[in-house]
Hints:
The chain is of the alpha+beta class. It has one domain. Helices cover 41% and strands 16% of the residues. The chain has ten helices and twelve strands. The protein has helices at residues 12-18, 65-85, 95-110, 113-125, 134-156, 169-174, 211-217, 254-264, 275-278, 280-297, and strands at residues 6-8, 24-29, 36-39, 45-47, 52-53, 61-62, 178-183, 191-192, 196-199, 230-236, 239-244, 268-271. The protein has a four-stranded antiparallel β-sheet, sandwiched between helices. A four-stranded antiparallel β-sheet has the order 7-11-10-9. A two-stranded antiparallel ribbon has the order 1-4. Strand 10 and strand 11 form a beta hairpin. Helix 2 packs across helix 3 (95-110), helix 2 packs across helix 5 (134-156) and helix 3 (95-110) packs antiparallel against helix 5. The longest helix has 23 residues, at 134-156.
Amino acid sequence: MxxxxxxxxxxxxxxxxxxxxKEQLVVHRLDQSGSFPAVVLKTGHRNDGHTLYGPSFxxxxxxxxxxxxxxxxxxxxxxxxxxLASPAGASELSEEHRHVLRWFAGLQxxxxxxxxxxxxRQAEQEGGPIGLTREETQTGLLMASTRSHLDAWMxxxxxxxxxxxxxxxxxxxxMAFRWDLVRFKQPSLVVSDAFAAQSGIRVEQRxxxxxVQKNWAKHGIGVPLNESARVTMALTPTLGVYxxxxxxxxxxxxEAFNRDSVYAAREFVAHAPGWESSKPLLSKSMAGNLDLQxxxxxxxxxxx
Length: 304
């Protein structure tokens, strides 16, 4: 059986949560104005985006190793989100819920096409390796970032593994936040290519940043995770996770949740058909945020 070519960096299970019964979405890309209909299968993917290349692989390429490793973590995340979204879902996140979601959030960061594009550009500007093909560059990025994260995830399931072997920089930083579930009575949230949307600067660190930097921080730019104010994760149109620096449970309005998702997006924002007409105020707010994000996106590194 031929290995699939479409490799989703935004998993299909997550997109399905925001699509209609026919797996239809309305997609707003950041590199163009307007929106268009799309199916889940054709959203958030790159052909051969997770393929490893090299003479050691059969036929010079390996399309299955990373995809297989990713599917195991994605399945765990899908199960956790399904449990939380069920009518009898928990009101609080358990340690197991947080464990799986922070590893999944780490995966989304470790395979981010924007992150890969940023690293590639920085390497070029600093006189990095010259003459590498795109396939060689992709393989290096995937092995250094994605494979390392997945290996750590596998090690985390072994209680006898060494701490350094199961360490996830992104996931470990998320443990410093308070995690709160936020539920909405009606479908209110949108999804973007950024699962864990970082925003703002924590109060005790704000004096270190000037006004322009504070504005960029709203878009997840220029501030390390350990100095950020909050992180949001949209799980379904009616369910999200709000990570903040407080010590007591907090809620977050849908408008602010969606703003974070849009500002963290680097490629697209999506929702089910009919969402805009059913939520005109949220739709209007999102449209304004999209306009700003599209304008700022041209100043950021291109996706790989």
